[in-house]
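Q: Is it fine to ask for two folds in a single conversation?
A: Yes, each is treated on its own. Send the first.
Q: Here.
A: Result:
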Amino acid sequence: MTTNEAHERTQRVPEHAPRLDWAKLAPEAFKAMVRLDTAAKLGIEPPLLNLVKIRASQINHCAFCLDMHSKDALAAGETAERIIQLDAWRESRHFYTAREVAAIELTEAITEITDGFVPDEVYARAAGAFDEGELARLIVAITTINAWNRFGVSTRLVPGHYTPTT
């Protein structure tokens, strides 16, 4: 193998450019999303919230949000193992608490809402794991990350440059 061939095998594909800076072009909407995101965090333990954000971002294929929330979770002390296993949580439930499983399952049901309603049994499991106030806030958090994902995917936000502040 020549040096050029070796270089070509290890050379990364260039990153794509974002389509537009929606936060700059629609600052009022961006500020409203930040306020909603802040409100959605209240009363939900950060490790659970990070799992919800990562799982919704996996489903929605939002690379920017996956990058951000995985880094935030790691910086907050989450294990790489739990983040890696999240996409296959049904086969690796033993990495998560029953409460986290209920939240992850509800996240999937709300995120994939085009498949129909949130199934009664999924909602019942979440309602059994969270009190009504917590459940309401969890639904807000799930809805909020889904909105962020849609902004990220539609405007092609570029992953890889986020640095956690924690």
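Q: Second one now.
A: Result:
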Amino acid sequence: MSYVSVYENKIPRSKGLILTGAVHAVIIAAVIAMPGIEFPEKFPGTVIAIPVPAETPPEPVRDNDQPEVKSMPQTPEKAKKPPVIDLSRSPVEPVGRYSEVALESGSGAVGEGIPIAPIKITPDPVIVNARLNARYAGQFQPVYPAGQLRLEREGEVSVRVLIGSDGRVKQIELIDSPHADFWTATRKQALQKWRFTPATKDGKPMESWLTLKVRFEINA
């Protein structure tokens, strides 16, 4: 039994031939356009391979002298209880009268029945300065010195006097005087004739210093 190929007597198509020829032409053109490959020339000498050992990395430096720091375990601190004061056993003995007070803080009272001593406030003493006694006002002016009167000289003497608790002048000091005659007349009059209402402290007479001026004038 024999088989006959049905393709044996077929004529090749013209399109297939043209496509095949075009592919071969493109391949040939690409090969021609490629640059030439140059091979290196042969090395005339001898190549000797020497093995080089790889370097080992240095070991890390350890500081043996550095002490190890150990953290201490932290324990929570306990809150301290406030001290309790027993007022019934207080060594302070009561003196005089006491008043019971309640210390208030915020909305309610903190302590009740705490005895406190009364505070005594001493007022400042009442001091009244000395002044000229009106009954002896006519004896204040000294006698005009005769020599200064003839020369028609006037002047003003400033003195500082110590007035005793009885109102008399116990001591006199000169501050300023234009002439010794004016000072002498003033001193004599003060020690003999001057009378004052003494200074008082809470109503009790006491000694005090007083500064005065005496004017010597010639009346026309």
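Q: Anything structural to flag on that second result?
A: Two points. The chain is about 15% helix and 25% strand. The first strand starts at residue 99 and ends at 105.
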